Amino acid sequence: MILVTGANGQLGQCFQQLATDFPQMKFLFAASSDLDIGDRAAVKRFFAQHSIQCCINCAAYTAVDKAESEPVQAKRINVSGVKNLASACAALHIPLVHFSTDYVYHSHQNLPFREEDAVSPKGVYARTKLQGERAAQKAHPSGTMIIRTSWVYSIFGQNFVKTMLRLGAERPGLSVVFDQIGTPTYAPDLAEAVLGIVDRTMRGDLNQEALAGIWHYSNEGVTSWYDFAQAIFEIRQLPCKVQPIESKAYPTPAQRPPFSVLNKAKIKTQLGIAIPHWRESLVRCLNMLDR
Ligand SMILES: NC(=O)c1ccc[n+]([C@@H]2O[C@H](COP(=O)([O-])OP(=O)(O)OC[C@H]3O[C@@H](n4cnc5c(N)ncnc54)[C@H](OP(=O)(O)O)[C@@H]3O)[C@@H](O)[C@H]2O)c1
Question: How close is the Cα of 80 to the center of ligand 1, in Å?
Fold first, then answer.
């Protein structure tokens, strides 16, 4: 059985939707009400009650700005919760797939980040996500696959694409920052890549040790939030005019990295993952929202 934690979040729902494409795998989807990953005893009990062969952790504290005033809650989920899952997986010698963020990077580098590049998280969310990576690797060094991803969106939950569609329909114009550069990730693309990897691992085509470590995944290409908004309105043919603004004109409690493009060479070459361009995936998402 493949356990998916945080199953009612944005990425968790994408795993639920894709599960039917992988009938050879049995899934156990656990929402936060089924399993609180921050509760160590509950995690132990849950793993003892079910026959789990792999855990995909979609549970996280993801409110980037709110985390500045809720550091204890963010740490409980992003650090202790992840450690609890990693310890439970280590005891059973099964793989843990965990998601982290491009926000662990923060420098004025303008070349895509490789997994081994120096990290410099700013803010509570980014720091707790990095601490969570480290806690998981310490508890389960040979079986933790950490996938750092960026700018995640889908038809589920709250995300930039859905916010832009709502505001774009309500307003004649919008200001969006053009000095934060990165790459969007269509969550179903990420979920599909992960399920392919887990399937190969369950069938013995990949061994658990080969997955251990840090990996990058986002869609291909590079953009700014301004260009991303522009593309959404262009494809949807919304007349909303987008105005580029600097981040300093839109202050937020937590700082975002000015450049966080991820280099995906490792996952593409070592695991043979094919990644669509962000614009192509954006069209697929907008078509899904039209249905
Ligand atoms: N969204 C992005 O742009 C982005 C970018 C980079 C990396 N990531 C990473 O990608 C992963 C998935 O993100 P997402 O966008 O799917 O986040 P999300 O929509 O906020 O989902 C997170 C889920 O975690 C659950 N959760 C919170 N506390 C929990 C607990 N103590 N025990 C169990 N579940 C708990 C939440 O449930 P409740 O709603 O019931 O609390 C929610 O369903 C996260 O690790 C995130 O850090 C996201």
Answer: 15
Residue pair 153/185 in contact (Cβ under 8 Å)? The answer is yes
Q: Is residue 174 part of a domain?
A: no
Which residues, including other chains, have CB under 8 Å from residue 192's CB and lie 6 or more apart?
Answer: 18, 21
CATH number of the domain bearing residue 97: 3.40.50.720
153 is annotated as an active-site residue? no
Of ligand 1's atoms, which has the minimum distance to the CA of residue 57? 45
Among protein residues, the one with the nearest Cα to ligand 1's atom 8 is: 101
Q: Give whole-number Cα distances, 229 to 183, 269, 279, in Å.
A: 13, 31, 11
Ligand 1 mutation target, pool 58, 127, 148, most atoms within 8 A of CB:
58
Per-residue pLDDT of the chain (291 residues; tens, 9 = 90+): 999 999 999 999 999 999 999 999 999 999 999 999 999 999 999 999 999 999 999 999 999 999 999 999 999 999 999 999 999 999 999 999 999 999 999 988 889 999 999 999 999 999 999 999 999 999 999 999 999 999 999 999 999 999 999 999 999 999 999 999 999 999 999 999 999 999 999 999 998 889 999 999 999 999 999 999 999 999 999 999 999 999 999 999 999 999 999 999 999 999 999 999 999 999 999 999 988
